[in-house]
Design a protein that fits this description.
The complex is a heterodimer.
Chain A lengths: L1 H26 L12 H10 L5 H28 L2 H18 L6 H8 L10 H17 L2 H6 L1 H12 L10 H7 L2 H16 L5 H4 L11 H16 L3 H6 L1 H9 L18 H5 L5 E2 L2 E2 L9 H7 L5 H28 L1
Antiparallel strand pairs in A: 1-2
Helix pairs in contact in A: 1-3, 1-4, 3-4, 4-8, 5-10, 10-14
Chain B lengths: L8 H23 L5 E2 L3 H10 L5 E5 L5 E6 L4 E8 H4 L11 E7 L4 E8 L12 H5 L23 H24 L4
Antiparallel strand pairs in B: 1-2, 2-3, 3-4, 4-5, 5-6
Classes of the chains: A mainly alpha, B alpha+beta.
Chain lengths: 338, 186
């Protein structure tokens, strides 16, 4: 099974990569030779060619480069809507390799600070930024922290770690601690925004956010902090996403608007199966804490599983009972007749 | 691993720039109105000499497109220009703010070298601050297109920053060269 998933992931990554390569080759321009002299005509021609491009021209040029991104997002949504576990892990692997190491394309606390400072990058030159930013906001409003659970490359990395690391190493924080630790990320977000408003400096992001790791360029201090974080993640799964991520906190706040929530059965009130299965500690009692939920599908799979979810088991039991009763009645009726 | 300067270098660059600003302001006030071509203070001259070690003299050219003219030889002949990108392309900005480079260019529009003066880019420390970034501009013609991923190395996650830096360097060079040619220079 894991082999098949790996082959899947490799196939998807390779095809994304090839589209990217094709995009670059296809658009390679004829380089003007550096001339010995410089003429007014050459200059004017060059300046006209590189005028601020129209949106249509940018889209036409970027189309092939945006294809792999669109492909990845389509995969993410496909896995989400089919609730397929296998596809989810393929999505996570592609997120780490493509969005993470290849493109370093992630929404960051820096982008929140840009919005706070009302300082948006120019659209024509920042299409990917707008695509991912809008995706994060819109998907959170529609379904919850979908971005955290399926698109963000660091979240994908820790989820894959959780899949590989033996579960006996895992330490589950007690509920009282987990609840309080969940607030740390809001404190970090508030601190980041305040500090930015006062100093107008956003370069501290790399000490509160590990997404730079995909660029492989950091200082010894940054690498030390990252190593500590990843080591702690071995024992407490998805530690960063659950307790520390300021972007997750912002999307958590936004998720109070979520339109399409996970449905619950009446029987969920007294049942603990999903609570125990939730990798994110987002279920307490029968309730889903939506600011913590990243729409990983784990509980939804249980809840649709007719052999595991008490809702279905109780229904079946009731049906069996009724059947037995009906048989008993039929039997006694027969008995009475004879 | 990419070569890179340390995390402290952004602040160092800014400090150096702050030291330079009041001096430049003082001098420009002192010489305003006297001449279009005027002498420079020691700091600026040192910066410019870093780009043009062979130059005989430099002169500041005020006006719509403020820049420096570089002269060489016994009988001084114009060999190049130097300019701060934010003086010319005032609207160009990176992810967070304008990025200021000092650029040296020959009279035929070939870039001699670039020096990062000031920036405020969150993703600058591993992109525009690196020596690799600056080095690739040496010898480039301003007729080149300076497109990230084509003739300028792409650095993932800092695309907005490096694209803006490249546009600033290219467009300000072209505007100065164009003005010079239009005035009848050759």
């Amino acid at each position: 099974m894991p082999v098949r998933q790996l082959v899947w992931a490799a196939a998807v990554i390779l095809s994304l990569w090839f589209t990217g390569v094709a995009a670059q080759d296809d658009a390679a321009p004829a380089e003007p030779l550096p001339s010995a002299g410089l003429s007014l005509e050459d200059l004017d021609a060059a300046m006209a060619a590189d005028d601020r491009p129209t949106l249509a021209a940018v889209l036409q040029e970027e189309a092939l480069g945006l294809l792999p991104l669109a492909g990845f997002l389509a995969l993410a949504f496909w896995s989400f809507f089919t609730k397929s576990e296998r596809l989810k892990y393929v999505t996570l692997a592609v997120a780490v390799v493509y969005l993470g190491f290849a493109k370093n394309n992630m929404v960051s606390v820096v982008d929140i600070l840009s919005v706070v400072g009302w300082n948006f990058p120019e659209f024509e030159y920042s299409i990917r930024w707008y695509v991912l930013g809008l995706l994060a906001v819109v998907s959170t409003v529609l379904w919850g922290r979908f971005y955290c659970g399926r698109v963000c490359a660091f979240g994908a990395l820790t989820q894959l770690m959780d899949r590989i690391i033996p579960s006996r190493l895992r330490v589950e924080p007690p509920p009282w601690l987990e609840r309080r630790a969940g607030y740390i990320k809001y404190a970090i977000l508030a601190f980041a925004i305040l500090y930015f408003i006062i100093t107008r400096d956003n370069s501290f992001y790399r000490y509160i956010e590990p997404f730079w790791m995909f660029t492989l360029s950091g200082t010894p201090l940054m690498w030390t902090l990252l190593a500590m974080l990843l080591l702690a993640t071995v024992f407490v799964r998805n530690l960063y996403c659950r307790f520390l991520c300021p972007l997750g906190a912002a999307l958590g706040v936004l998720s109070s608007l979520t339109v399409f929530r996970i449905k619950r059965w009446q029987e969920c009130q007294g049942c603990k199966i999903c609570e125990r299965a939730c990798e994110w500690g987002a279920i307490r009692g029968g309730k889903i804490i939506k600011s913590e939920c990243v729409r990983c599908d784990d509980c939804e799979r249980i809840y649709a599983d007719e052999a595991a979810c008490p809702h279905w088991l109780l229904l079946k039991k009731r049906a069996r009972k009724e059947e037995r009763y009906r048989l008993a009645v039929v039997h006694t009726d027969k008995g009475g007749a004879s | 691993m990419k070569t890179q300067t340390g995390w402290w270098s952004a602040s160092r660059i800014r400090l150096r720039f702050k030291g330079f600003l009041p001096l430049a302001a003082l001098i420009s006030v002192a010489i305003a109105g006297t001449s279009a071509l005027s002498p420079l203070d020691a700091d600026t001259e040192a910066e410019l000499r870093g780009l043009f070690p062979e130059a005989a003299s430099f002169a500041a050219n005020k006006g719509q497109l403020p820049h420096f003219r570089v002269y060489q030889g016994e009988e001084p002949t114009l060999v190049g220009f130097a300019y701060y990108t934010t003086d010319i392309e005032k609207l160009e900005r990176g992810y967070k703010a304008p990025i200021n480079f000092l650029v040296g260019m020959t009279v035929v529009g070939e870039i001699v070298g670039i020096r990062l003066i000031e920036h405020d880019e969150p993703y600058g420390y591993f992109s525009i601050e690196t020596d690799d970034f600056s080095a690739q501009f040496e010898g480039k013609s301003i007729l080149d297109r300076f497109r990230v991923g084509r003739d300028i190395d792409a650095i993932s996650s800092a695309t907005i920053t490096i694209a803006s830096a490249a546009r600033g360097i290219r467009n300000s060079g072209r505007r100065i060269a164009r003005q010079f040619l239009a005035e009848g220079g050759s």
